[in-house]
Write a structure and sequence with these properties.
Length: about 350
C-alpha cells in the first residue's frame, strides 16, 4: 500500500514539475519551425521555452479543454477553428501595445474575418493543402485530383489527410462544391464520394500530413494529401521521384496564427514571442525553412527568391480564385462531424 501511495505521489510531483515556472510553454504543430528557432529566441530575449507538439486541430482543442489553457502560453490554431475557440473561452485577448511589430503584417491578415481586429490572433504562416505524388510511378498525370477521386484514373495507393474539414473540403473541391455548404443534397453526395474512395482497393488510409508525405517519399503510396510546406521539404530530398502540386479544380487554403490561451501563466513572455516572430528577418527565416508563405510583408526582402517564384508556395493570380477557405459554421459544424464519423466508421 505504501509503495502504491509513494508511486502516486511521485507521479503527481512529476506532473506539476513538467511546466517550469520560468519557462514559456509553446504548443505548436510538429515540424513547424527551424531547429534553432527556439534557441535564437532565447539568445535574443533571455526567455527559456518548453515546446510540445500536436498533429491536428482536434488534438489542440482537446489539450486546452483538458486544462492546457492554464498551462500553455502560445498556441498556433488554424483560421477556421479560431471562432469556436474564442466562444469556448480558450483564448485571451492580446495587448497590441506589446506587439509593435504587428504593423509588419500584410493587409490581408489585418482584421481577418475569423478574428475581427486581431483581438485573439496574429498570423504565423499561410499556405495550401495539395498533393504530393510519385512522378516516377504515375502515367499521364494531368495534375488533377482524379487519381484519388475518379475510380477510372486511380493508379496506386493513395492517402487521405486525417483532418475533418480539410479532408472533406478537398473532396468538395474535386466535386466543384462550396467547402462551407450546408445543403443536405450536396453533403449526401460528399459522404457517398468519400465512402466510395475509402472502399477502393487503392485506398491506403488516413494519416497526418507528415505521415502521408513519408509514405510517398518511401514509395509505399503514389499520392497523398499534404500541406504544401511539408511536401516541398520532402520533395527537396527526393527531386527525382517526388513532386507536389496544388491540383486543378482548386484546393483548401489556410492561415495559422499565434494565440495566447486564456489562463496562460506567462502572457508577457508570450507577447514577446509573438512580437519576435514578426521581426522581418525572423519571419523570413521561418518561411525560408518551412517553405510556407509569410504573412509578414516586412520579411519579403529576405525571402529566398526561388520561393517567391514557386507557385506551390505563392500561388499565381490565375489560381488564387480556386483556393477556398474553411469557415466556422457554428451549430452546423456538427453536420460535418457526423459525416466524418460515418466515413471513418463504415
Amino acid at each position: 500500500m505504501r509503495k502504491i501511495l509513494f508511486t502516486t505521489i511521485m507521479i503527481l510531483l512529476m506532473a506539476t514539475n513538467v511546466f517550469a515556472a520560468d519557462e514559456m510553454n509553446l504548443l505548436i504543430w510538429s515540424e513547424y519551425m527551424p531547429e534553432d528557432f527556439v534557441s535564437d529566441f532565447q539568445k535574443d530575449t533571455g526567455i527559456k521555452v518548453r515546446v510540445e507538439y500536436y498533429e491536428s486541430m482536434e488534438e489542440l482543442v482537446a489539450k486546452l479543454q483538458a486544462g492546457g489553457k492554464n498551462q500553455y502560453d502560445v498556441v498556433v490554431p488554424s483560421d477556421y477553428i479560431l471562432p469556436a475557440m474564442i466562444k469556448l473561452g480558450l483564448l485571451k485577448e492580446l495587448d497590441h501595445s506589446k506587439i509593435p511589430n504587428l504593423k509588419n503584417l500584410q493587409d490581408t491578415f489585418i482584421d481577418p474575418t475569423w478574428d475581427k481586429g486581431n483581438k485573439y490572433s496574429v498570423a504565423y504562416q499561410w499556405g495550401t493543402i495539395g498533393m504530393m505524388y510519385r512522378k516516377d510511378k504515375l502515367k499521364d498525370f494531368d495534375g488533377s485530383w482524379d487519381i484519388m477521386f475518379d475510380p477510372a484514373k486511380r493508379q496506386g495507393p493513395f492517402i487521405f489527410i486525417d483532418s475533418v474539414r480539410e479532408m472533406l473540403g478537398i473532396a468538395q473541391c474535386f466535386m466543384g462544391m462550396d467547402v462551407n455548404t450546408t445543403d443536405k443534397g450536396e453533403l449526401k453526395k460528399l459522404m457517398d464520394k468519400m465512402l466510395e474512395a475509402k472502399h477502393d482497393k487503392f485506398f491506403a488510409g488516413f494519416d497526418v500530413g507528415t505521415g502521408g508525405r513519408s509514405k510517398v517519399a518511401a514509395g509505399t503510396a503514389v499520392a497523398a494529401i499534404v500541406y504544401n510546406g511539408d511536401a516541398l521539404r520532402a520533395v527537396a530530398d527526393h527531386p527525382d521521384t517526388c513532386a507536389f502540386i496544388n491540383p486543378k479544380g482548386g484546393t483548401i487554403g489556410w492561415v495559422d496564427s499565434m494565440s495566447i490561451p486564456s489562463g496562460a501563466p506567462h502572457p508577457d513572455k508570450a507577447l514577446t514571442f509573438i512580437n519576435w516572430v514578426l521581426n522581418p528577418k525572423v519571419g523570413a527565416k521561418l518561411s525560408n525553412w518551412t517553405q510556407y508563405a509569410t504573412p509578414n510583408k516586412a520579411a519579403y526582402p529576405y525571402i529566398t527568391p526561388e520561393d517567391f517564384k514557386n507557385p506551390a508556395i505563392y500561388p499565381n493570380k490565375e489560381y488564387i480564385p480556386s483556393i477556398q477557405f474553411i469557415k466556422d459554421l457554428g451549430k452546423d459544424n456538427k453536420i460535418y462531424d457526423q459525416i466524418w464519423t460515418m466515413v471513418k466508421t463504415r
